[in-house]
Amino acid sequence: xxxxxxxxxxxxxxxxxxxxxxxxxxxxxxxxxxxxxxxxxxxxxxxxxxxxxxxxxxxxxxxxxxxxxxxxxxxxxxxxxxxxxxxxxxxxxxxxxxxxxxxxxxxxxxxxxxxxxxxxxxxxxxxxxxxxxxxxxxxxxxxxxxxxxxxxxxxxxxxxxxxxxxxxxxxxxxxxxxxxxxxxxxxxxxxxxxxxxxxxxxxxxxxxxxxxxxxxxxxxxxxxxxxxxxxxxxxxxxxxxxxxxxxxxxxxxxxxxxxxxxxxxxxxxxxxxxxxxxxxxxxxxxxxxxxxxxxxxxxxxxxxxxxxxxxxxxxxxxx
Length: 319
What we know:
alpha+beta, 24% helix, 31% strand
């Protein structure tokens, strides 16, 4: 992987013919073992890389863990097989030397891959039988995935009222923590397309926040408004006209500008881009699914009447 300058990502393969099963049940394994090509989808949703997979993952020159995937670590276990009946003291001494060598080899490999020794320190604290899911902050701090903004691709959710969505994790500019967010495009309503943004509330933030969204293809056409609180989330829900939708589908990214008014009449401004890759293929699927959807659907998002309304929050944008 290092010689090929590979980009490593965490994902899983979903065979289309096994969509209703577990992907590893007897019927699905029979399909996979028949030979020839098997139609499948590659997804990061609920994908996990752990144990030996983690060392393979670290071997790549570039490493990306999607917000809805996971990388997990645990300590090693030494299994010894002896012929005869060696003295217990000799077995203990041999075990100690082998474990010490294994620890040195692991530490050397992690360092050679450009990863912080903090990862090795953490691995030593996790029992072999357990797993530690690396947080987004740990992935960043250890040097595993150093992106300040990690995103999923756009995905079609075929619910009673379908929608397209993506998750993202954004690092605070002057901090080490990441905040999860979610974007949704829903079925057209009166020639306009609902666009929704939700993220976890920043408890340290003070002041009212607004967002402004533009696309590459039409920088003068914008959507936005006030971000309102819904439980432990901040939600903005607006709609875009056909021209803005065309601009979004023709663009590579959405440009987002957040403005928070501070008590001293100053403004805290944050800018970031949301990748639109894949939306052009998802949107026709969404349009077709919307046409077949049941009428008068229940909204997948909480109704927001006022900033301090008590509502049921949307699903958390995390694995």
